[in-house]
């Protein structure tokens, strides 16, 4: 079974290939980290996969109708602004909209999904706060919870842990890993290669719009790939407590 199949996904902007024939399949139970330097095309890849940007080639999600897509994939974009001064719970409840027949109120299973998302993101103490008055990192956790409340088999999140404190970053990546262990899948872009190595089951490494490597973290984060794509040296060790990856020096 595939949650996302891309074949030859390509996009040209201002005469430059910002996505270059990306082909891949994501199945259930995968926590897939999308890594690559600034401008590599991570956001473009996610948006084109969702059908939010027109692209050449094919994406199974972009090709499905909007209602089916919203029940398959939850999307957490990079922009974090919560615009409305409503409660945290109300923002998270918006994740249930794709499940509600037009004009109906929240039902028991909607309430259960909202409660589970609040619990998972550790937001119980903030539940009744006004969302716009939370810190940036707290708002980010609320938006992740909104995506979780959508209760889809697939979650696509663009740099969801940027700007979170270490505990929230680790806890959020652990939530994604847990979702994968439960048989759902996550596609998450991130710049923290150490967290990518520790929590993802698979990494996609992008450079200049092209997929350079696709596989388990240890096979993707090789010294050669890291040097060539990110221009840094790195320390990598498999420890009893899991992999430890630390970028070290810029290669000149
Ligand atoms: N509207 C646009 N017009 C022209 N070029 C664009 C446009 N949007 C994105 N690009 C270019 O496409 C390339 C890929 O951008 P994208 O945002 O997908 O990269 P990214 O890997 O997500 O980067 P970051 O890590 O900085 O978020 C960049 O070179 C960017 O300048």
UniProtKB/TrEMBL annotation:
Residue stretches making up the ABC transporter domain: 4-233
The keyword Repressor is assigned to this record: no
List the Pfam families: ABC_tran
> What are the protein's GO molecular function terms?
ATP binding; ATP hydrolysis activity
- Record keywords, A-Z: ATP-binding, Nucleotide-binding, Translocase, Transport
Query: What SUPFAM superfamilies does its record include?
Result: P-loop containing nucleoside triphosphate hydrolases
> What is this protein's function?
Part of the ABC transporter complex HmuTUV involved in hemin import. Responsible for energy coupling to the transport system.
Protein name per its UniProtKB record: ABC transporter ATP-binding protein
Q: Which organism is it from?
A: Pukyongiella litopenaei
The root-end lineage is: Bacteria, Pseudomonadati, Pseudomonadota, Alphaproteobacteria, Rhodobacterales
């Amino acid at each position: 079974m595939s949650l996302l199949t891309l074949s030859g996904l390509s996009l040209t902007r201002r005469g430059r290939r910002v996505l270059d024939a990306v082909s891949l399949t994501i199945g259930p139970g995968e926590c897939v980290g999308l890594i690559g330097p600034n401008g590599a095309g991570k956001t473009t890849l996610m948006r084109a996969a969702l059908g939010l940007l027109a692209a050449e080639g094919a994406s199974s999600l972009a090709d499905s109708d909007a209602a089916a897509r919203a029940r398959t994939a939850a999307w957490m974009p990079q922009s974090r602004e919560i615009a409305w001064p409503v409660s945290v719970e109300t923002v998270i409840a918006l994740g249930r909209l794709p499940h509600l027949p037009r004009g109906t109120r929240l039902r028991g299973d909607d309430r259960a999904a909202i409660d589970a998302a609040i619990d998972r993101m550790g937001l119980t103490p903030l539940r009744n706060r006004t969302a716009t008055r939370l810190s940036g990192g707290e708002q980010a956790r609320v938006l992740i919870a909104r995506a979780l409340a959508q209760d889809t088999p697939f979650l696509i999140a663009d740099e969801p842990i940027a700007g979170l404190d270490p505990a929230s970053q680790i806890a959020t990546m652990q939530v994604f890993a847990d979702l994968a262990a439960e048989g759902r899948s996550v596609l998450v872009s991130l710049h923290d290669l150490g967290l990518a190595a520790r929590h993802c089951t698979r990494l996609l490494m992008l450079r200049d719009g092209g997929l350079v490597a696709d596989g388990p973290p240890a096979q993707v984060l090789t010294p050669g790939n890291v040097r060539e794509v990110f221009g840094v040296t790195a320390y990598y060790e498999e420890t009893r407590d899991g992999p430890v990856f630390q970028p070290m020096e810029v290669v000149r």
